[in-house]
Write a structure and sequence with these properties.
The strands form four sheets. The chain has an eight-stranded mixed beta sheet, sandwiched between helices. Strands 13-12-11-14-15-16 form a six-stranded parallel beta sheet, sandwiched between helices. A hairpin with a 5-residue loop joins β9 and β10 (about 210). It has 14 helices and 18 strands. About 40% of the residues lie in helices and about 20% in strands. The radius of gyration is 22 Å and the shape is globular. The protein has helices at about 5-15, 45-60, 105-125, 140-145, 150-165, 180-185, 220-240, 255-270, 280-290, 300, 350-355, 360-365, 370-375, 395-415, and strands at about 15-20, 25-30, 35, 65-70, 75-85, 90-100, 130-135, 170-175, 200-205, 210, 250-255, 270-275, 295, 310-315, 335, 360, 375-380, 385. The longest helix has 25 residues, at about 395-415. With about 425 residues, it is α/β, with parallel strands linked by helices. The chain starts with a helix and ends with a helix.
């Protein structure tokens, strides 16, 4: 076991859950279902719990729980954190993020920052949801990307955990998780969005196939890309009164699924495309198919790709690209991309403004994917929510187009206020 102090403590003390809420730390012992106050006197993890609580209190955070529990009928363990940032506007949508974490501090940071971004995204899109995040520590994240049956017990257990939140938590795919994972989670909870559509199939145990979900919203990437595209058009319309992207020099950093979907829109409008990605094979494909000029094709080159002079920089991969150390290097008019958590700190947006760089916040620019997935949730007359009752792609696209208008309104208001 890696030296993760909180989880090591839970292992040593026979604790399966630790919850921080309202500045109180509670624990649930192994093989029990009741909560007890966690003793903090001379507790070796007091420091990290105190620091976490201070951050949560400052952000008015709703709920935060560490999980370290055995999964029945398997040799696996559920090692995770579930954080709910806000429930003010409705149940919280939480992305499921899987990684091979080195420390629980990294897990805590991912939960806190991404859950806040999701809450902002849902609020600006007027979707009627709060924000949450689930992070799972697992030594081989590719098992989730490929939906390997060996991780099905973890997904099913996550569904059971989600059921305990009694509708306050709705799961969605995030980094290293997929629509196919959501299909497996549906075995134990219905509070899941961004599911495979019924016209497609998912490979499950013994290479069998199962159909997707009726009214499943399908791949969110094209809708995320569409909102990024509309964000770029809004940005240029604000700057020079012309929303056309024709002959604009646009750099896309990250040419994976989301980046490729953005490229498709830019090609149609005649933008001059420049790209950066750590995968050489992806770069070659983009050169051959799209005639894209690749300015970075490995980790070292991508680390400085942000300094490329262009009309718009479109981050489509990674976290924290915009930091006080990198900002002086930027030579672009607009930053607008699909990557989450682009700002290293909120104050970095002010530094961009001081340099005359227009930043379209990530939770606005990439909201299309969430708008699409949220179509799987219907609010009933009594305020309850049902899942996958109906789905309309036309409604999704219309709402994304409305977001372009909202972006222009926000930019104009900000300009008036200085």
């Amino acid at each position: 076991m890696k030296r993760n102090s909180v989880f090591q403590y839970m292992h040593d003390q026979g604790i399966r859950r630790i919850r921080i809420k309202n500045s109180t730390a509670m624990m649930m012992p192994k093989d029990q279902c009741d909560w007890f106050r966690l003793p903090l006197d001379k507790n070796p993890i007091y420091g990290i719990l105190l620091l976490t609580d201070l951050i949560l209190a400052e952000m008015d955070y709703e709920d935060f729980t560490f999980y370290y529990e055995e999964i029945p009928d398997s040799k696996l363990r559920f090692k995770a954190i579930v954080g709910i940032y806000s429930l003010d506007l409705g149940p919280a949508i939480g992305g499921v993020h899987v990684n091979d974490y080195s420390t629980e501090e990294d897990m805590i940071e991912d939960v806190i920052m991404v859950s806040r971004t999701l809450a902002r995204k849902a609020a600006i899109s007027e979707l009627g949801f709060g924000g949450a995040q689930v992070v799972i520590d697992y030594n081989k994240p590719s098992d989730f990307r490929h939906n390997h049956p060996r991780i099905f017990p973890i997904l099913e257990h996550l569904g059971k955990v989600t059921e305990e939140y009694q509708g306050r938590l709705i799961l969605a795919p995030d980094s290293n998780t997929t629509m196919q994972n959501m299909h497996i989670i549906q075995r134990t909870t219905q509070t899941v969005i961004c599911n495979v559509n019924e016209n497609d199939f998912i490979v499950v145990e013994d290479q069998n196939e199962e159909p997707g979900s009726p009214n499943g919203s399908g791949d969110p990437s094209p809708f995320t890309a569409f909102s990024v595209y509309q964000g770029l058009k809004a940005g240029f319309e604000f700057l020079d009164g012309n929303d056309s992207l024709k002959n604009r020099n646009i750099l896309i950093i990250g040419l994976g699924k989301s980046g490729l979907a953005v490229v498709d829109f830019l090609v149609q409008e005649g933008a001059n495309l420049f790209g950066a990605d750590i995968d050489e094979s992806v770069c070659k494909i983009m050169e051959e198919i799209y005639g894209m000029e690749i300015i970075a094709r490995n980790s070292e080159e991508c680390a400085v790709a942000h300094a490329f002079e262009c009309d718009a920089l479109v981050p489509c991969a990674g976290y924290g690209l915009i930091s006080d150390k990198r900002i002086p290097d930027f030579r672009t008019k607009i930053i607008c991309g699909s990557a989450n958590y682009q700002l290293n700190q909120d104050k970095d947006a002010v530094l961009l403004q001081d340099l005359g760089i227009l930043y379209i916040p990530d939770f606005v620019a990439n909201c299309g994917g969430l708008i699409n997935a949220s179509q799987e949730v219907s609010v009933q007359a009594d305020g309850s929510r049902q899942f996958r009752v109906c789905y309309s792609e036309g409604d999704v696209n219309q709402k994304i187009l409305e977001m372009k208008v909202k972006v222009l309104e926000i930019l104009s208001e900000a300009a008036r206020e200085g």
